[in-house]
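dumping the sequnces here before i forget
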Amino acid sequence: MGRTDHTATRRQLLRAGGAATTAAALGAAAGPAAAQSDTDFGGWFDDVGNYDGVVDKTGKEEVTVEVGVENGQGPYGFGPPAIRVSPGTTVVWEWNGKGGSHNVIHTEGNFESELVSEAGHTFSHTFESSGTYKYFCRPHKALGMKGAVVVSESGGGSSGGSGSVSEPDYGGWFDDVGNYEETVDERGSDEVTVEVGVENGQGPYGFGPAAVRVSPGTTVVWEWTGKGGSHNVIHDGGSAFESELVSEAGHTFSHTFESTGVYKYFCRPHKALGMKGAIVVGNVGGGGDSGGDTGGGETGGEGDAEASGGVLPVPNDFTGWFALFFGGIAGLAAMAVLGTEAYAEYRDIAAARAAAAGGTPTEAPAESYQRELDEGYDPLGTAALVAGYFVLIGLLWAFMYFVEFLAGPSITG
Amino acid sequence: MHVHRFEKLWFGAALLLIVAFIATIVYGAAGPGVAMVSDDGGTIDADKVANGNFNQTDNFRSPGVYRENGQVHVYIVARQFLFNPGTSQAIEVPANEQVTFHVTSADVMHGFNLAGTNVNSMVIPGQVATFSVTFDETGSHGIVCHEYCGSGHHTMAGKLTVVSQSQFELAPDADAVEASGGS
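..and the predicted 3d for all of it:
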């Protein structure tokens, strides 16, 4: 699921990036008129059954969205899924109690509700700044439980076109990072300071700012605030930089970024609490830019694993080699036995044919009839069949038990 | 009584195979110590799990990773259609140390399987599945639900990351784990 999500997010981001570029081009050509077109959600609502355009709620102070309305696949929808509100509007989500537990999670982490199932539960968030806020229900996202709040002054679309470079594709890296808003542009500075241990909504477990864009050659200095215990700074998906695990305030760690790319990093002890950041070096955008050699570290790793899994399975431990050895010996033995049997059978048939061709027609049938009475069955053919079954069972047993079952961790109590 | 030599051969081979099967099971139990998931975890009120009232239960804690009496314990709640923790955030456990999992369900029957391994249990509402695993290598394992649990079953998955002991650190306090785990 993780991978599917990943690619889906990437595709959406790519599409969003493309849309942003198009919007920017249109904006340059046609001026403000382009902004009046309907907001492009980049495929966000493609699988949302109850989406039917953006409902205009601008001018109201409080807007209610129902959680758990029918969306064609069951009570897994937000009603209405897409609304347009003015800045400063409070959106109240109200649970109707259908469809089990739901929550409301912003894709970029600005708001997140509890996972609740009771009817009448409410969750609210006040939207101050313009933009498109996509959100979803974690358990039912795949069933199309997704929504969006478009915050804009005049009912026009907003593609957040600040700056000349679009947001890089972080591949969901910031999904659970509370203090990530957008990439702070520090291009041109020789030295940029990132605080370690700022509030991220779950405690002092954030990098401030979480995402920074710098020029190549910039030195980034991480400075510990001393809050939240021990932190470190570890490059994700690579080994470009890694700091010590330190808790004292004032401790610093620095790294100079020479090559273009997206460098994701995290604090090991608090990664699960959303202590993650990224340094974007150069003009890496989201519109199909590969993000340099380190940007796709995580995805590259998965690809490698898949590639190595695709070729011949080579054993990597004792049981694997044992099974291979055992299987090889058994296979050779089986081939030897079957080969001998086949040859014996061939000679029998050849002899019978020679007898039939050379002998008189009356003698040959009588001979074979006599032979059947003596033997009762053909021992060689039966032996070959039984040997084949034994080899098959042996191979299945060795492979399933030693390779499939015992390789890797086991329940031991 | 005359027995054909081929018959003697496969009679012997069949006996050998049976002995080998039994020897395999004995080896698995005595060597690597493979065990079945028992009912030692006890029963639990599924409503309390669903409503998050873990302090009213005596054999389950708020979902997360804890160290109890020096041993690592992981408490996981499966519900439609997520593992908490596991889905929104990977479960981090140390390598080369016994890790005990306590898994229960908040709603319907689920499954808990570390993909590609034999760490595999049913997750039954009202029952706590308790089992211990020692991870020899660092790396990550996918967690999959293998009991059909509803229309989103195919999306129900998570991740478990095994880190080296030096990198393993518990979340700073149980409250923080609860806060993040509850999301």
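Residues 173-183 of chain B have pLDDT under 50 and may be disordered.
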